[in-house]
Input
Amino acid sequence: MNLIYLTGRRLKVFVQQPAFLFVTLIQPAIWLFLFGNLFRRVVDLPGFGGGSYLTYLVPGVVVMSAVSSSMWSGMGVLEEIDRGTMNRFLSTPARRGAILDAVVVEQTLSVTIQSIIIVLLGLAAGARYPIGGVLLLIASSALLGVVFSALSNTAGMLVRQRETIIGLNTLLLLPLTFLSSAFIAPGLMPGWMQAVARGNPVNWALETCRSALAGAVDWPRSLTYGGGLLVLAAALVYLSGRTFRAYQRSV
Output
């Protein structure tokens, strides 16, 4: 019940500022329609596989948006600390783990809503996907939101500086996106990029759903990458919980 209440509290703030959701969608829309038109002939390259580049691009923009949005999660934690709200919660009977878990759940729900809107924008522009592939894409983007929200919360708890969160977002977003199959087929990447992509969680999210989006699910591949993403998400949530307990001891 503590987790439900604390998540609902954070969602109220989200609902009261609906403009924030649309502001965060401006950049994904630019990537979607600018890149979708600028590089639409990329599909003609030998080895790409043909089809519509917009259809290929939408999942990449979805996961890129998931990383970008969830990486700001630590800023909310720092604001709670600065306002004294976090310390007041620590003086209540609320389950300690639920305080930080609520931040991750709220951020994951936000990422899910953004992902659905981006997919709908892609469909409106002409992209086509089977419903099973869309559901798997949204699920993998939500898991990616958990990964980077927990990572951001961990950084916020350890360093407690907004500049660090901003720097971490800037440092990770574009390299992780471009070192994945978000914008180009893996077979067209240089060998070293393919090697890096295999260990990149952003690429794991894409590999989880690519075959399903193409209409023929490669279950061993999807389960392998999806399972890896799930394990990473659980590990980072656990790590963020450990750093939160260290914060409790310091106040």
Summary: The CA atoms of residues 180 and 203 lie 5 Å apart. The chain has one domain: 51-250. The two ends are 25 Å apart (CA to CA). The chain is about 80% helix and 0% strand.
